[in-house]
Amino acid sequence: MKKITYLIIFIFSSFILNSCEEEAREPIHFISFEAADFNFGVELEGGTSLELKVFSANLSSSDRTFEISIATSSTLHAASYSVATVVTIPANKNVGLIPITISDTNISEGGETLILQFVSSKGVYTGEDMILNVKQVCPFNELELNITFDDWAEET
To answer: How far apart, in whole angstroms, are the C-alpha atoms of residue 99 and residue 87?
Structure first.
């Protein structure tokens, strides 16, 4: 009786293990900007350029490219900035760079916002949008004030 029971278990387990084929799965990607808020200073009558980082939660043996868009709620005038519309994360890395240049064109005294977001795509999960708080920076010389007190500093 034991031999028949073992034979049935063997046949049943062989059927279960061999009857299901593994499905090829698309890799799942999680990407996010380096920060949700970023203060971006622009010199008067000039511009500022830098590269913002995008992070991926996993490594891949091939380059990965993700699309970036500008949110319609951004207040920075389109003539004031240049931003790449895609970011590539190189193979075997988890950081990509987005070049961005902003000039002082059409920036109000209170500042403007530029909101970057990832374009939705299958198998890609994203972090928060990045809000660039853009303000003009005054290029005035710094002033250092040194005060030397006498023995009665509290009377100053």
So the answer is: 9
> What is this structure's pTM?
0.70
Query: Which residues, other chains included, contact 120 with Cβ-Cβ below 8 Å and sequence gap of 6+?
Result: 126
Residue 152 lies in a domain: no
Distance CA(120)–CA(77), nearest Å, equals: 24
> Does residue 15 surpass a pLDDT of 80?
no
Q: Contact at 8 Å (CB) between 110 and 133? A: no
Domain for residue 19, yes or no?
no
User: What are the respective helix, strand and coil percentages of the chain, to the nearest 5?
Assistant: 15, 40, 45
- Note whether residue 53 is domain-resident: yes
How many independent structural domains does the chain possess?
1
Give the pLDDT score at 140. Answer: 65
Under 8 Å between Cβ of 47 and 107: no
pLDDT of 68: 95
Residue-number span of the structural domain to which 116 is assigned: 29-137
Q: Which amino acid is at 97?
A: L
pLDDT given for residue 7 in this prediction: 41
Mean pLDDT along residues 67-95: 94
